[in-house]
Amino acid sequence: MKRTDINFTIDMIAFIGFVVMTITGVLMRYVLPPGSGHYSTIWGLDRHEWGDIHFWISLVFFSLLALHLVLHWRWLVSVVTGKPREGSGFRAGLGIVGLVAVIALALSLFLTPVEKDLTSNGASSRSGHVYEDGEIRGSMTLRDIAAASGVPAAYIVESLKLPESTSVDEQLGSLKRKHRFEMADVRIIVEKYNDGKAR
């Protein structure tokens, strides 16, 4: 196989990997946002499974880019160390500074300590999805929420204007899709009930 054909094949696979990586990133950010992983799927895969695909594709893409650089190493060296011309030293220096900055940024993510918030059972206090005793998720049932928050399931059913026959063992995500309410509505109901009880 000619070197040109090898370069073309690697570049095409890298481009396809980049497109798929972009699509899965957009999919996880906008179509299956955080908190949807327990009840929303596309092609039978939830947010976390799409995240795994995104991760492995990014590793393949990174490997192909590294291989691309190896195959073009002579050209890179000749560009950096080519015949001295006016401004070529500045360009080479700028390239080296840029490369060092990218490597430093990448390494800083692995060297920075992970922050843990143990006061809210691992749930981020910035997310706005936390009430006093924990986090409300779509995978929880009304019975789970009642047990965790102390708010009677019947009160939540009534406040959301759900049918009286609503099962307290049905997942919140499923109820949300059927009856068109938002998770924020449930959080507000829990907070109001607990605020009223505290008075």
What can you tell me about this protein's structure?
There is one protein chain. This protein folds into two domains: 3-82; 131-198. With 199 residues, it is mostly helical. The protein is elongated. A two-stranded antiparallel sheet has the order 1-2. It contains eight helices and two strands, in the order H-H-H-H-E-E-H-H-H-H. Helix 1 packs antiparallel against helix 2 (47-71). The model is unreliable at 117-133 (pLDDT under 50).
How do the strands and helices of this protein lay out in sequence?
Elements: H1 3-31, H2 47-71, H3 73-81, H4 88-111, E1 130-131, E2 134-135, H5 142-149, H6 153-159, H7 172-179, H8 183-198
Antiparallel strand pairs: 1-2
Enumerate how many helices there are, as a single number: 8
Question: In terms of per-residue confidence, which ranges show pLDDT below 50 for 5 or more consecutive residues?
Answer: 117-133
For the biggest β-sheet, the strand order reads 1-2
Task: Provide the domain count.
Answer: 2
Content-based structural category: mainly alpha
Q: Strand-residue fraction?
A: under 5%
Largest sheet: 2 strands, antiparallel
The best one-word shape is: elongated
State the end-to-end CA separation.
79 Å
What is the average of the pLDDT values? 76
Helix content: 55-70%
C-alpha Rg, in Å? 26 Å
Number of DSSP strands? 2
Provide the succession of SSEs: HHHHEEHHHH
